[in-house]
Amino acid sequence: MSTKAPGRKPAVAAVPDDTAVHTAPVFQLRGFSAWYGDFRAIKEIDLDIPPRQITALIGPSGCGKSTLLRSLNRMNDLVPGAHVTGQVLYHGVDLYDPKVDAVEVRRRIGMVFQKPNPFPKSIFDNVAFGPRVAGFKGSIADLVERSLQRAALWDEVKDKLKAPGTALSGGQQQRLCIARAIAVEPDVILMDEPCSALDPVATLKIEELMFELRTNYTIVIVTHNMQQAARASESTVFLTMGDDRAGYVVERGRTSDIFTNPRDQLTEDYVSGRFG
Predict the structure, then answer these.
(1) Which residues pair with 48 in a beta bridge?
(2) For residue 246, pLDDT beyond 60
(3) Which fold has domain 26-271?
């Protein structure tokens, strides 16, 4: 895989071979803080995120979960006044190094948002958009079909690919957005409360899809739903905020341990519903 696109800044390094991918953390945050102007939203985060697992970020509203998630693919670069200190290492490469191409970062590290946001285009063109922009040279039709199959949507839409994506149900729209993210062949999928706008049936389908996708992708999800975090993730990171309103990591561990045998009293109080 080339590490440099013509006419662009150097991109992030190629993803390592399978042995390295399965043993080394995908992300390593070291002393990482994110700011909006003079306000520090998260502070001094030290955190490793393992490969090919679902990692849930939980914590009370305003503790910086979404800021942390968006920092992993530099989406916060688009917010006026946003800046960072410390490091986010992705396969050992500092994502905030000036030499790194932010566009390539966002291709490798895809994002699915809280509210489904299909483009005002056909189902086919929603999925094909990213690869076309990236200059994909293969069969777009095959890529669209493969992406929709991976997103568990192909059987439901294969006969109406020219229909607008916005005409789908909420759950189908969210799976279309996942297919759109998959189509550019990312390494990581970030999900910011992807089920908060969905009914229980659609939520279950998204959770089942996440479990299927984790065999090929690293998934990081923000959720306020403790039951969802307990059901759908293998590791959990609990954040809260201090008196300065800056979020910080209290505890990280296996999801089963976080919910049944947390080490920190703050974690126990949160997952048991005593605060938050």
Answers:
(1) 28
(2) yes
(3) Rossmann fold (3.40.50)
Query: How far is C-alpha 24 from the chain's CA centre?
Result: 18
Closest to 45 in 3D by CA, of 58, 37, 34, 60: 34
pLDDT tens per residue, range 29-84 = 999 999 999 999 999 999 999 999 999 999 999 999 999 999 999 999 989 999 99
Nearest to 188 by CA among 111, 70, 109: 109
**Residue 228, φ and ψ in degrees, nearest 5:** -65, -45
Report how far residue 64's alpha carbon sits from residue 68's, in angstroms, rounded to the nearest whole number: 6
The CA distance from 209 to 181, in Å, is 14
pTM: 0.88
pLDDT above 50 for 21: no
Task: Give 155: exposed, middle or buried? Use CB within 10 Å, 0-12, 13-18, 19+.
Answer: exposed
- Round the CA-based radius of gyration of the chain to a whole number and report it: 19
d(CA 213, CA 195): 16
Three-class SS of residue 9? coil
Residues present in the chain in total: 276
Residues 6+ apart with CB under 8 A from 126: 118, 119, 165, 176, 179, 180
* Reduced 3-state DSSP string for 178-234: HHHHHHCCCCEEEEECCCCCCCHHHHHHHHHHHHHHCCCCEEEEECCCHHHHHHHCC
The partner residues of 219 in beta bridges, in order of sequence, read: 54, 189
251 beta partners: 238
